[in-house]
Amino acid sequence: MAKKKSEECEQLGKNGHLSRRDFLQVAGGTLAAAAMASGAVSHAANPAPATDTGTVHVAKYTRGLLRPDVPMLGPVNDGGTIVVETAPGCWGPMITPIFKGGHEVTWPVAVKGAKVGDAVVIRIKNIKVTSIAASSGVMEAIAGTYKGDPFVHRMCPKCGRESEETYVDGIGWQAIKCKKCQASASPFKMPNGYTMALNSEESLGVTVGKAAAEKMAIEAKKYSALPAHAEQHSILVYAAHDIPGLLTRMRPFIGNIGTTPPKVMPDSHNAGDFGQFLVGAPHMYAWTQEELNEKRTDGHMDINSVREGAILICPVKLDGAGIYIGDVHAMQGNGEIAVHTTDVSGEVTVQVELIKGLTIDGPILLPPKGDLPLLATPLTPQERAKGRKMAEQYGVEVEDVAPIQVVGTGSDLSAAVLNGLARTAKLLDMSDGEVRNRVTITGSVDIGRSPGVVTISIMAPIRQLQKKGIAHLVKEQYA
Q1: Cβ contact 453:258 at 8 Å
Q2: Are 315 and 362 a contacting pair, CB within 8 Å?
Q3: What are phi and psi of 383, to 5 degrees?
Q4: In the predicted model, what is the mean pLDDT of residues 381-409?
Q5: What is the mean pLDDT of the chain?
Q6: How does pLDDT run across 99-116, given as a tens digit for each residue?
Q7: Separation between Cα atoms, residue 417 and residue 272, nearest integer Å
Q8: How far apart are CA 139 and CA 270, in angstroms?
Q9: Non-local CB neighbours of 125 within 8 Å, separated by 6+ positions
Q10: With 145 labelled, which of 29, 82, 342, 385 sits at a CA distance of 20 to 30 A?
């Protein structure tokens, strides 16, 4: 038996499917678990011992699914670090029919001690864009290439093979070919799109013309910097060039980050808006509306302030939490009005913290201070001093408050606002009316993604934040 394990271990190592740490785990007798994670974990040049879970490095992906049914990596310690190599989200997976979702997020990482009903804090320490170029645009699903949901249930329009393997032959949307019958098999066209070059300083992007777009299409993997274990076709293959010469700023952020739901779910559908496609869907990943309301964790936010320096508090709805990261964007205005933006490869570092007993339904966001709406920005010492004098004149004390943002999602923006208000009221033990009044005069409602993701900004009483165990995070973020 030992000889067999050694031989299997050696073969996997030769194929490049195991890191040094995984190799040692196989030799130690955990072949099944290590094989499940084969090709997955990219460790530092001098990897830590297998018992050290202070830092977990991840470069493995789940082919478009959030998977509560697989062994998680880690666990990472409370206070530990997760370093991930991310693949582009959206368009690349969208044009790769073997995917069961619209993103390519990382394999889930367990947080030591995390149980259902807890919450995990994710501090976004660093986001580095590794792509040289990106491409995006508005989408059009192609008839005959899917059943019910072009993001999940794909099929070849000629031979009918579902979730077929494909290859790239040439450039343009017709270049994605079925391996079985060689028919064009991409589920999506791009009626209006662009290819954008990104500078090495991660400060600017400029859209290019036909010649440059086609050059990038021919060398798509190079320009998109696809990670070694990514399986998607690069959207640069489309050579989109409808808006040449448009200069814009880069401000990288993470579009899909959070904890794993307790039921298998396409990664792009982990929200109240895109999740509606799963309700009664004609495929194996169908959910009921009740399941969606209860089990989604709303990791797919596309909120552009989920960027370096932000603090995210996420619900734990599965023991271990299962932190995953993906869909890094180079930039995006509020609303993601085109539904898609510049998806890039990247390297992301986050630090985690476990909060026991904080039961929340969806994410709480503490964005960088400069991203807060005006009325939710902490008052200056001078403003507070003036305000106290005013309050004394009328016999009241100024309430100690601090800003938080509660994420709400739903089938449309109205439903998302109602969801966010209800979550805020539950978190702060307030009535719906009090929450609405406070948001109106000390906060804001802002669009994350136009179909149905919003942030509810509110100046929350410090006493309530202390009661919930998150006052220290607000103090850390906004002093």
Answers
A1: no
A2: yes
A3: -65, -40
A4: 97
A5: 90
A6: 999 999 999 999 999 999
A7: 11
A8: 20
A9: 81, 308, 349, 350, 351
A10: 342
Q: Are strands 73-76 and 109-111 parallel, antiparallel or unpaired?
A: parallel
| Tens-place pLDDT, residues 187-238 | 999 999 999 999 999 999 999 999 999 999 999 999 999 999 999 999 999 9
The beta-strand segments (E) located in 294-452 are 311-315, 324-329, 346-355, 364-366, 401-409, 444-449
Q: What is the rounded distance in angstroms from the CA atom of residue 55 to the CA atom of residue 46? A: 12
Q: Is the pLDDT of residue 256 over 80?
A: yes
CA-wise closest residue to 466 among 377, 386, 400, 381: 400
More confident call, 415 vs 18 = 415
Residue range 451-466, pLDDT digits in tens:
999 999 999 999 999 9
Q: What type of residue sits at position 455?
A: T
pLDDT for 33: 34
**Which of 15-29, 170-184, 205-219 is predicted with the least confidence, judged by mean pLDDT?**
15-29
Query: In the chain, what is the greatest distance between 2 CA atoms, to the nearest angstrom?
Result: 84
CB 206 within 8 A of CB 247: yes
Q: Which two tokens stand for residue 34?
A: 């290590």
* Residue 193 near residue 135, CB atoms below 8 Å: yes
| Separation between Cα atoms, residue 86 and residue 83, nearest integer Å | 10
Q: Give the Cα separation of 66 and 428 in Å (integer).
A: 30
With H, G, I as helix, E, B as strand and everything else as coil, classify residue 396: coil
Q: Which residues, including other chains, have CB under 8 Å from residue 94's CB and lie 6 or more apart?
A: 102, 139, 150, 151, 187, 188, 235
Question: Dihedral through CA 107, CA 112, CA 118, CA 123, nearest 10?
Answer: -70
- 244 pLDDT exceeds 80? yes
Residue 249 contacts residue 109 (beta carbons within 8 Å): no
pLDDT band at 52 (very low <50, low <70, confident <90, very high): low
Q: Are 388 and 399 in contact (CB under 8 A)?
A: no
Query: What is the reported pLDDT for 136?
Result: 98
- Residue whose structure tokens are 């006052």: 471
pTM value is: 0.88
In this prediction, residues 293-299 reach a mean pLDDT of: 98
Q: Which residue in 188, 243, 186 sits closest to 213, CA to CA? A: 243
Cα(95)–Cα(81) distance, integer angstroms: 33
Looking at beta carbons, which pairs linking 155-159 to residues 24 or more positions away fall under 8 Å? Answer: 155/97, 156/97, 156/180, 156/181, 156/183, 156/185, 157/183, 157/184, 157/185, 158/183, 158/185, 159/183
**Domain-by-domain residue ranges, the chain?**
1-39, 133-249, 369-478
In angstroms, rounded to a whole number, what is the distance separating the alpha carbons of residues 436 and 100? Answer: 39
Token pair 């220290």: residue? 472
For the chain, what's the residue count? 479
Tokens of 56: 């977990």
Distance separating alpha carbons of residues 209 and 196, to the nearest angstrom: 9
Rg (Cα) of the chain, in Å, rounded?
23
CB count in 10 Å sphere of residue 174:
14
